[in-house]
Amino acid sequence: MADESLISSSAKALVSLREGKGSSFSRSPSRRGNPPRIRKMNKRFFNEDEDNDYSPGKSPRKQAKASAKSNNSGYLTGHDKKTAQNIGVRLRNLLKLPKAHKWVCYEWFYSNIDIPLFFGENDFAICLKESFPQLKVKKMKRVEWCKVRRLMGKPRRCSAAFFAEERAALESRRSKIRLLQQRKISELTSFKDIPEEIPLHLVIGIKVTARLRKPQDGLFTGTVDAFDTTDNTYRISFDRPGLGTHSVPDFEVLSNVPPETIPLSAFQQKQRVRAVTNSFFSPPRFIPNMASPNPDLNLDNDPLLSGSPFKGQLMSIDGGTYGGFPIRFLVLVTRLSKILSIKKEWIKQLKDMNTEAEKMKSYQKTIPIEFQKKYANIILELENLNKDLNEYLIGVQQFCQEVSLILVVSP
């Protein structure tokens, strides 16, 4: 009996220990520096007596990356949209102020003719290249910069004379660019202070942004209608209703597309080619016949006709020139133009007869013999005109090839 009581008491003790009731045993406190071992749950091993409440967390780095991706992939949130709208409203209210509007125009609006002037090398960089050609660095010590500034001298800034000189220099450079744009140049020796890329004139129909003074002051978009070389202005039709069409100076017009430019070296090549062509096509000076038997024909003593180039004998069609062009070439071009005009008239008649023949066929009428003879006559005339036209075209083409060979061979 004693054994059975011991077994029952031990069983009760085990049950109480398992349920955690009435247990006089307590876990020993962990020693300092030795935390209790926490075992993860495993499908192969699970101990109910151990504390398995620990669950490992995810890596913070992965969370940060995931949050960044989610922010980048999504659109602006409501808060961001509201902030952007508030900034836009404040910017619009700022631009309504006259001084702020002028400041924006002066700071960021540059016309096509001013972009290469203001965005190129500044005067300080040019002066450094001229004064110190061996200087190849951009970062120097303070003592070295002070030495450079001392050698260059004290600049004049914010004085009336300085601003007047800068405005005059800017207007002079603008005038030189306009002369290059209009091909009104004789030599390029005085064009050293202009950039290497020259902007071309704006073509008609291009979209531009122009600075308008009246009836409203501001920047407005429009379309170029014409260009006036007398006062260097563009005729622009503005898009906003009520503004109409106005003439705007070229230094206040900016194209909405990148401007087309041409290198300065191209103008030098054109000048050389033009000199060669002038020497090839220039009319010769006729020497008067000094041994003329008639003394009345001697015009050396005449104050008006003594230097006239038309006193001598006229040259033949094959070797003469007129207006700098060979007479033979001018004759070919003239005949070619006349043949084209005659052919145009015959083609018009042929078109009318084709229309009339289509009407006859639609009404199921027979085409008369006279109509057929007239139609055949037009076809024969066009065939003869095409033969003559081909002959003169070959002559003009040969002449153009001769000129191109001369221009290529000449240095």
Could you explain the architecture of this structure?
This protein is of the alpha+beta class. Among the domains are: 94-120 and 156-263, Roll (SH3 type barrels); 286-311, no CATH class; 315-409. Helix content is 49%, strand content 10%. The protein is built from 11 helices and 9 strands. It has helices at residues 2-19, 60-73, 78-95, 98-108, 115-118, 123-131, 142-152, 160-181, 264-281, 327-362, 369-409; strands spanning 197-199, 207-212, 218-228, 233-238, 245-249, 253-255, 261-263, 321-322, 325-326. A 5-stranded antiparallel β-sheet has the order 5-4-3-2-6. A hairpin with a 5-residue loop joins β2 and β3. α10 runs antiparallel to α11. The radius of gyration is 47 Å and the shape is extended. The termini are far apart. Residues 21-26, 65-70 and 273-316 have low confidence and may be disordered. Belongs to the lin-9 family. One of its GO terms (cellular component) is transcription repressor complex. GO terms for molecular function: DNA binding.
CATH fold category name of the domain at 94-120 and 156-263: SH3 type barrels
Q: Helical content, roughly?
A: 40-55%
Structural class assignment: alpha+beta
User: How confident overall, as mean pLDDT?
Assistant: 73
How many strands appear in the DSSP assignment?
Answer: 9
Q: Roughly how many Å is the radius of gyration? A: 47 Å
What is the spatial order of strands in the main beta sheet? 5-4-3-2-6
**Multimerization status:** single chain
Largest pleated sheet = 5 strands, antiparallel
Contiguous helical run count? 11
Straight-line distance between termini: 136 Å
Low-confidence stretches: 21-26, 65-70, 273-316
Instruction: Please tell me the CATH architecture of the domain at 94-120 and 156-263 by its name.
Output: Roll
Q: How much strand?
A: 5-15%
What is the CATH class of the domain at 94-120 and 156-263?
A: Mainly Beta
